[in-house]
Every structure is written in structure tokens, then in C-alpha cells.
Amino acid sequence: GELNTYALFTDAAIKFKTKRGVVGLVLKSAIVTSQVNQNLFKYLTKEKFVVAIYDFINRKKIFNIDSRERFCFLLLGNSQSEKFHVSMNLSEVSEIEKAKSEIELSYGSLKLLNPFTGMLPNFSRKSEVDFLLRVSYDFPFFKNVYENVRFGRIVHLTSHAKFITKRKSGDNVPIYEGKFFNQFDGRFSGFNGVRDGLRYGNKSSSVNIDEANKSIADYFPEPRFFINAEKWRQLSKNHNEKFMLAWRSLTSATNTRTCIATVLPFIPASQSVQFLTTNQNDLLYLSGLFNSVVFDFILKKKLSGIDLTQSVINQIPVPNREQTASKINFNGGEATINHHISLLVFSLFRNDVRLNSLFENLELQNEIRSESKFETVRKIDLLFMALYKLTDSEVELVLVEFSKQYSKKDLGWFKNELQILLCNYAVSPAVPTAAFSPVG
């Protein structure tokens, strides 16, 4: 492959720069956003070499390259200040002059935002940075809350090609693909009824499974590929859990939803799927967390590439276990917030018979409610807004990113319901040990 030389030029520029010198470089934005460059970027920020960063998307064709390409103007010198100016998602050079678009960050603030890499998040406005700093200060990071989680992406269609076939047999098992599931839906689409010419073509496309077929208990996505069962046992020997939380690996911060996750049996999945295994008691709650708009908003600002990896997940601030273990009266009953969320998620999954043993182990029961999936998902989002202690302005900030899902009417609903929820339950200052508990 091609060798990206921009990091080498940056390193050389710093070494050749005189004590009073200033260097301006036009580079790929990955120099400040990609974890592969974390050691160099952390050195530049910690030693106060960074004066300003102006990040551009090539929408206006400043360069005759792909309009989706990102590049930045990196200004380096011997700054006397820990802080440096940042403007992101610019499209014209003239926007550099707009001081209102500039944000001041430092090595310390980047360490708070992305503690494991120290790289720059993807933001457009100061209000987004303020929100990210607030939740990063108030809440622990995923890695520190879920220490025993094991991440995986096991089956690779190319690397394991000699163990993979297109025909089902007695000694192989089906391979799940990312397109087969959606949020809270393990039976979203499949190659059911698709002839081979279209199934394996360059532009192959799965077919969505309608509600009528989803009502059939044993109707599942039809796979294209199968892997040798013994090979699968060898590959998965470090995972003994029966279920997993899976999400589509290939994504983008500009997608309507950046994280698309669901709970599945522990089965072979292609490289388009990443998963985690953990205490089975956490799976339904984590599915709610990963699919919530607050989590997705934070993720959009953290993701710099197109691969949703564990390094990104681990740096997402999340509610701590003490908060989720607090009891509230919600949706007609009193239970912990974790249990309320798990019940709502369970109601979305309950027709997937593959998860029955998980539900039985968790002793989950739920009345058949007449509410729609939209209403259930909205309640899940409401509970996570409460856990993250969103203010009215933060609710507006988050929902702007999800205008295709929620309307202005929904914005009013969230504000009103959140106020009722937070008025009835005391919320202590948002610090890592804060609790969300009923008023005595």
C-alpha cells in the first residue's frame, strides 16, 4: 500500500524549525484525528508546539481530489500558551478569519476528551465541545466501567477463505453479516429468495424482512456464506458466552445513525460486524446505551474514520453502575433504571426466539403493551438523557443531529418529560460517583 508521508514531514518540520521559527503545513486531517498518529500529536500538544489547527472538508473542491477528503492547516511554533486555536469542518479558506468559529483547546482538555489517544474530536461548534468536555468530566469512560468486556471481530471472508463455502452442509455454520441486523432488530434483512446471480454479484443487496415474516418464529436472515464448524470452534475458543452485543463496523459520523447495534446469539459474523461479550445481565442495557441518541451523538464527535472499533467505544463517557442501579418509578412501575431500560429493550426483542434463554435467565417479564416501536425507543432515549443529565439546551444540541428520527414536537416532549423525571428524582452534581436516586 501507499506510505502516508505527512507524519514524517511534520516530524521533520519540527526538528528543522528554529527556536523562534513558525511552520505552516497543509496535511491530511488524520494527523490530528487518527490514533495512528497519537504519539506525534500528543508530543506536539504537550510541548506547546501547536498554535492553531484549521480542519477542512474538500466540499468546495479547494483541491482537485475527492470532495469527502479532509485536510488541515497545522500551524506550529513555540507557543507560550497551553491553549491553541481549533476550527473544524470548514469548507472555504475565508472561514479561517471568522474568530467565532474558533475554539481553544489544550493537551489537558484533549486528554480529558480522548484519554487513551489524546486526539482531536470531530466537532463544528463550541457548544459541542462544551458538551463533550462536560460529559467527559462528569462520567467515567466505557473502558473503566466495563472492565471485563471482551471485544472481537473473528471471521474474515478473505483470511479464512479456505474454510468458507457458499453451500450449507452438516459440518458448517452460517455467517452473519452487518446488513442482516438493525437497531434492536436481529432479523432486519437477508438473502431470502435472492438468486445466486444477485446474491454474489458486485452490487449484491439483501432484502428487508417484512413484519409478516418476522411474526414467523423460525424465519431468519438467509446467509450467503458458511464456515467450517470446527474452524469456528477454534476461532471462538476464548468466548464461552451464549450471546453477544453486535454492531455494524463500517460506519461514518455523517450517517443518520453512526452506531447500529443489536443483541444476537454468539454466532459467526463477517468482518463487517464487531461484537463484545460480557456479563449477560448487561447485554440488554448495553444495547439500549449503544442505540441511544446521546451515545450516538458523542460517538459522532469521537469517530474520525469509517471503522467503529473498540478504541473508539472505550473512550465514550457512560453512566456509571451506581447511577443505573438507582430505583425510579417509571412507565407504571418501580425498578432500577437499568431494569427499566432492559425491560424496554426486551419488549423490542421478545419476538426473536433465539434470545429466549437469555430472557429466561434474566427472569424478564413484560406486559404486552400497545405502544409502537417508536414510542418504546423514545422512552429509552429519555432515560439515557436523564442518566447523562442533559439540560434543555443540550437536548436541543443532541436532537439536531437526529432530525430524521425526531421532530420539533418530539423535542418538546423530551424537554417536558425530562423535566418531570428530574423534578421527581434528585440528581446530585454530575461526578463519576453521582447517583440518580428517588427523592426521599
How would you explain this protein's 3D organization?
It is built from 18 helices and 18 strands. The strands form six sheets. The chain has a five-stranded mixed sheet with strand order 1-3-2-4-5. Strands 6-14-12-13 form a four-stranded antiparallel sheet, covered by helices on one side. Strands 7-11-8 form a three-stranded antiparallel sheet. It is α+β, with helices and mostly antiparallel strands. Strand 15 (327-330) and strand 16 (333-336) form a beta hairpin. Residues 427-440 have low confidence and may be disordered. It has two domains: 6-112, Vaccinia Virus protein VP39 (Rossmann fold, 3-Layer(aba) Sandwich); 150-438, Alpha-Beta Complex (Adenine-n6-DNA-methyltransferase TaqI, Chain A, domain 2), CATH 3.90.220. The protein starts with 5 loop residues before the first helix and ends with a strand. The protein is globular.
Alpha carbon gap, first and last residue? 63 Å
Fraction of residues in β-strands: 15-25%
* Rg measurement, Å: 24 Å
Strand order of the largest sheet: 1-3-2-4-5
**CATH-defined superfamily of the largest domain:** Adenine-n6-DNA-methyltransferase Taqi, Chain A, domain 2
Helix content bin: 25-40%
Spans with pLDDT under 50 lasting ≥5 residues? Answer: 427-440
The name of the CATH topology of the largest domain is Adenine-n6-DNA-methyltransferase TaqI, Chain A, domain 2
What's the total number of strands?
18
Oligomer: single chain
Instruction: Give average pLDDT, whole number.
Output: 89
What structural class should be given to the helix and strand makeup?
alpha+beta
